[in-house]
Design a protein that fits this description.
single chain, alpha/beta, Barwin-like endoglucanases, 6-stranded mixed beta barrel, two-stranded parallel sheet, 17% helix, globular, carbohydrate metabolism, hydrolase, polysaccharide degradation, glycosidase, cellulose degradation
């Protein structure tokens, strides 16, 4: 059946969106700066009905309803990264988490709240998969880089962890790279310990492993924590 030209033109944006799924090879780094995520502001993307920008929390790790609240990494700010945006293991070979992302050919509006399946290609993680939702970006990220949000991963350019959690002035461990041993996680706030241990348990202490990646439907378990769902995005409701 041939469709009228007017119908084909109307459907074109949906065809383009379907073909715009990102994939390629990339690298991972890690960070946890405790700052409000850049995808936590309104107006960055079109949201699904009932959704919201990436959730932020107050100094007591309680969710904020004011999405216009200034970042705790700015003077007078009150919005911080929520502890539940730490990564977690689904199985021995699959995990979920969040990341600051920069992908070639895209912009923040195409990355924010999109999900990517990262398949590790370097030892010791070959055969493991991490699905992340983009909650942040950064001017210091290179093309096809996923800066994994892992407590104790280093504060990088900004440090809200001292204000929120009483961390040392340069964050826990090195400013870039964070803590270097599992035992260093023992002194973390209880809400962040599991996320810190994740790097040394599920990730086996890997240091910036390489990946192949492809954009996928966001698992419902991930969006339930971030609160953010892109308009017209499919959600994977498979139980985890």
């Amino acid at each position: 059946m041939l469709l009228p030209k007017s119908v084909l033109l109307a459907l074109l944006p949906f065809f383009l969106q379907a073909n715009a799924q990102s994939s390629g090879t990339g690298k991972t780094t890690r960070y946890w700066d405790c700052c409000k995520a850049s995808c936590g502001w309104t107006g960055k993307i079109s949201l699904a009905s009932g959704s919201n920008p990436v959730s932020s929390c107050d100094k007591n790790d309680q969710p904020l309803s004011d999405y216009g609240a200034k970042s705790g990494c700015e003077s007078g700010g009150s919005a911080y990264m929520c502890s539940n945006q730490s990564p977690w293991a689904v199985s021995d070979t699959l995990a979920y988490g969040y990341a600051a992302t920069t992908i070639a050919g895209g912009t923040e509006s195409s990355w924010c709240c999109a999900c990517y399946e990262l398949t590790f290609t370097s030892a010791p993680l070959v055969g493991k998969t991490l699905i992340v939702q983009t909650t942040n970006t950064g001017s210091d990220l290179s093309s096809n880089q996923f800066d994994l949000a892992i407590p104790g991963g280093g504060v990088g350019q900004f440090n809200g962890c001292t204000n929120e959690w009483g961390a040392p002035s340069q964050g826990w461990g090195l400013q870039y790279g964070g803590v270097s041993s599992r035992s260093a996680c023992d002194s973390f706030p209880s809400a962040l310990k599991a996320g810190c241990y994740f790097r040394f348990d599920w990730m086996e202490g890997a240091d910036n492993p390489l990946v192949t990646f492809k954009q996928v439907a966001c698992p419902a378990a991930i969006t339930a924590k971030s609160g953010c769902v892109r308009a017209n995005d499919a959600i994977n409701e498979a139980p985890t």
